[in-house]
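pls design
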């Protein structure tokens, strides 16, 4: 390889948020599946704690633990089994299950030597996503994790991914998952890694998300030269919640309705993003072959 040309990584990564991106909000859905009204749960059990300075997700998880403790019979309690069952029955949005193969196929057609990796990065409950029918598509899936009592009931949050902390996982994808393990230092993820040692440079990463929880990731990908795609529900892009608070560095390459069916604006955007990266890699390949 000529020293003057950029290093080559034959790999691209597409990273997805989960709730309201690939499937309907799983926390609201799970709360409803426990026989509770999600709006009342938020209003009465979560919001007062947020007003008292709690992080909203931690307040939600605490309220779930509390709810489980309140219930007398084991069959009514909130258990791992219940989360798993809910994850299995939660239907992803139409077009989502077929999307992965569509993107893989496009990459194969353009650049057969390029490998596509899919990752799931959620601030929601990992147990639900892990048992969803699309879970097998992801190389790694990250989300918040519960610790369970011996009888399977939820006890405490053992792993928490805040909105800002989501970005850490983008660096982990870029630098390679083994780096932290091999070094034994959690902060290794922020080490300056020589470009030729990157698992997948941020310029070859696409991030897809729907909400304010995704804004930090949008910012990291914009700064790193990747592609950020924003999703919105319904038909009004101008009502997109994060749009009210984002700075220029946090804007997205395109904002499309949540619709993964073939030919939709979102699928076209995803395919364009993937094609752009494939062509970028093909160009680097030419320089390597010289
Ligand atoms: Mg979301």
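designed seq:
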């Amino acid at each position: 390889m000529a020293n003057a040309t950029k290093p080559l990584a034959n790999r691209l990564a597409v990273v997805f948020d989960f709730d309201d991106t690939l499937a309907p909000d799983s926390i609201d859905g799970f709360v409803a599946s426990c026989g509770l009204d999600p709006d009342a749960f938020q209003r009465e059990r979560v919001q007062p704690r947020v007003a008292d300075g709690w992080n909203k997700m931690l307040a939600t998880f605490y309220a779930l633990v509390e709810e489980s403790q309140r219930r007398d019979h084991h069959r009514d309690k909130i258990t791992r089994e219940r989360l798993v069952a809910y994850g299995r029955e939660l239907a992803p949005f139409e077009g989502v299950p077929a999307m992965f193969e569509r993107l893989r196929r496009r990459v194969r057609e353009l650049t057969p030597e390029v490998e596509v990796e899919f990752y799931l990065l959620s601030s929601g409950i990992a147990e639900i996503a892990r048992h969803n029918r699309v879970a097998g598509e992801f190389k790694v899936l990250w989300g918040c994790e519960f610790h369970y009592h011996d009888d399977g009931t939820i006890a405490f949050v053992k792993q928490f991914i805040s909105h800002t902390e989501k970005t850490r996982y983008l660096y982990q994808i870029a630098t390679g998952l083994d780096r932290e393990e091999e070094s034994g230092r959690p902060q290794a993820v922020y080490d300056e890694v020589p470009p030729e040692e990157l698992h997948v440079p941020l310029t070859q990463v696409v991030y897809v998300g729907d909400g304010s929880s995704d804004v930090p990731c949008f910012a990291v990908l914009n700064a790193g030269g990747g592609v950020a795609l924003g999703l919105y529900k319904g038909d009004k892009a101008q009502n997109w919640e994060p749009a009210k608070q984002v700075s220029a560095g946090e804007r997205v390459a395109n904002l499309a309705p949540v619709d993964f069916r073939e030919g939709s604006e979102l699928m076209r955007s995803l395919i364009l993003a993937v094609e752009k990266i494939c062509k970028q890699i093909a160009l680097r390949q030419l320089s390597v072959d010289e």
